[in-house]
Task: inverse folding
């Protein structure tokens, strides 16, 4: 089965304070690490970049300009995956995802799932909250045994991912759009090290933990 990867790197990094995906992490950009990991499963890697991008492609095969939302950026990349049976979508801002993790989500789809995502059990206690004029307060403790937090890379059958995006929906991940179609998305074990660089301190934590 042929596999294409869409690495989305068209965000502004507002919480980080700039386009974190092009910051340096051990002599390479964050996005280049993500492209390299995607390359372990994909014959074609499509990198989706901001309009003002002036880099060298980060090692990708195809570079396209994204949109104002993550879902729009995925659609821009997906338009260049026409020959693939399986598409794996990955956040450029997750440079630590391993080749093993890419392999696991792709394998689950080749074995028959519509989609596959990495998930982690929640170790903290989870509360539902509400706010009034004075404070934020707890309304309920939520059972966490049926909850996971999910990461990228997320793999899908290409035809199903295209249908999921066909009505230009918006969601923070692609699995949500496939779920909305009634697709079966399986969860494989995620990696605690596969953090998404989001806040300013996150990159420094990675820099101190990477030795290669
Ligand atoms: N992304 C994208 N196009 C967008 C928004 C996000 O390609 N319009 C990408 C980001 O570059 C990132 C991934 O989607 O690799 C996950 O998004 P997030 O961590 O939210 O990054 P940003 O949107 O850049 O950050 P922020 O929300 O803080 O502005
Ligand atoms: Mg964002």
Result:
């Amino acid at each position: 089965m042929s596999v294409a990867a869409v690495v989305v790197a068209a965000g502004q990094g507002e919480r980080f304070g700039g386009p974190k995906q092009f910051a340096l992490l051990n002599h390479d950009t964050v996005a280049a690490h993500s492209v390299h990991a995607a390359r372990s499963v994909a014959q074609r890697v499509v990198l989706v970049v901001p309009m003002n991008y002036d880099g060298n492609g980060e090692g990708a095969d195809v570079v396209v300009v994204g949109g104002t939302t993550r879902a729009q950026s995925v659609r821009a990349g997906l338009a260049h995956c026409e020959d693939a049976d399986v598409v794996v979508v990955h956040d450029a801002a997750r440079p630590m995802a391993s080749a093993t993790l890419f392999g696991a989500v792709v394998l689950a789809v080749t074995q028959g799932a519509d989609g596959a995502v990495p998930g982690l059990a929640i170790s903290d206690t989870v509360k539902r909250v509400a706010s009034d004029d004075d404070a934020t307060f707890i309304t309920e403790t939520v059972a966490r045994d049926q909850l996971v937090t999910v990461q990228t890379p997320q793999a899908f059958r290409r035809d199903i991912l295209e249908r999921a995006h066909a009505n230009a929906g918006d969601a923070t991940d692609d699995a949500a759009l496939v779920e909305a179609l009634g697709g079966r998305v399986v969860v494989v074990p995620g990696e605690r090290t596969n953090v998404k660089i989001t806040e300013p301190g996150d990159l420094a934590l990675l820099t101190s933990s990477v030795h290669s």
Notes: The pocket of magnesium ion (ligand 2) is lined by residues 11 (CB under 6 Å). The CA atoms of residues 82 and 147 lie 34 Å apart. The chain is about 25% helix and 25% strand. The radius of gyration is 17 Å.
